[in-house]
Amino acid sequence: MKKRIVLYKRLSDQLMQRLQAHTEVTLVEAPAADGLARLRAALPGAHGLLGASLRLGDELLDLAPELEVVSSVSVGVDNYDIAELDRRGVLLTNTPDVLTETTADTGFALLLACARRVVELDGWIRDGHWRAGIGPAQFGCDVHGKTLGIVGMGRIGEALARRANAGFGMQVLYHTRQPRPEVEARYGARHRSLQALLAESDFVCLCVPLSAQTENLIGAPELALMKPSAILVNISRGRVLDEPAVLQALRERRIRGAGLDVFVQEPLPANSPLLQLDNLVVTPHIGSATEETREAMARCAVDNLLAALAGERPANLVNPQAWERRAG
Ligand code: DGY
């Protein structure tokens, strides 16, 4: 008999057909909005779940006692209670690697947009202000040759370092718990304490996963260390920043600007005070959101799910403890 899976994300026809060939599929769309009741109804008897951006708490897990695997279409797994999945012997998989380059591109897009005021000046033209030449009031700041500080030097941090070093001739500083000599050799990057990195960098990009250690990593005291000319970019998770502190620093122009792809509350409410700022560029959590990369992520998630349901160890297993529990 085919195993039963619940999808809480629509996949391409090709991937859907692949799943249907091996499993019995129930598709529940928009569970975070109005689809929660449909998700609850689909969970009893489900062996696998596949989707993204859903907080899977005890209440939902209790409804799925047969669950073997949760296949997340994301690299970040901060919305799962991993200890609880371990306890239940439920495997959790994610989709690293395939989104690394695209997410680093997003970091650079925000960095360049802030430095060269792309969004603001687009609005300035549309509002009919381009009547003569431009002057210092429209000038931005250079990116090439400056110093980029990368907080977190995982795969995405490294992809940013490569772009900064090879493409923009930037000096790269990075902060991690342990120095990474191979990254230093490849990109001329130099390890710094968080405080020193913030003080020395012209651009600071946050690339750490969200955890108890990184929540509110950058608040008022850290922002106060940054140069008044510096630009902050966040492509990790909203809660890594103390958002009210960033709002205040931008309002008071204690830093030059910020580019944020992620927020404490997503979707960002239309009345968020952040949206009043002219020195902030926002994007709706698009780090990995290209056609090619989202399809590659979905394919990776399908591979992980089917491997787990076939009793094989999936390539991107987040919680080996659950695998050992199942094996034992
Ligand atoms: C990820 O893969 O974690 C991206 O941030 C999308 O959630």
TrEMBL record:
Database matches in PROSITE patterns: D_2_HYDROXYACID_DH_1, D_2_HYDROXYACID_DH_3
UniProt superkingdom: Bacteria
Xref: CDD domains: GDH
D-isomer specific 2-hydroxyacid dehydrogenase catalytic domain: residues covered: 5-319
One example GO MF annotation: hydroxypyruvate reductase [NAD(P)H] activity
Enzyme Commission number(s) of this protein: 1.1.1.79, 1.1.1.81
Keywords: NAD, Oxidoreductase
Annotated D-isomer specific 2-hydroxyacid dehydrogenase NAD-binding domain residues: 108-287
GO cellular component, one term: cytosol
Coiled-coil ranges (or none): none
Alphabetical list of PANTHER family matching this protein: 2-HYDROXYACID DEHYDROGENASE-RELATED, GLYOXYLATE_HYDROXYPYRUVATE REDUCTASE B
Family: Belongs to the D-isomer specific 2-hydroxyacid dehydrogenase family.
Protein name as it appears in the record: D-glycerate dehydrogenase
Species for this entry: Pseudomonas guariconensis
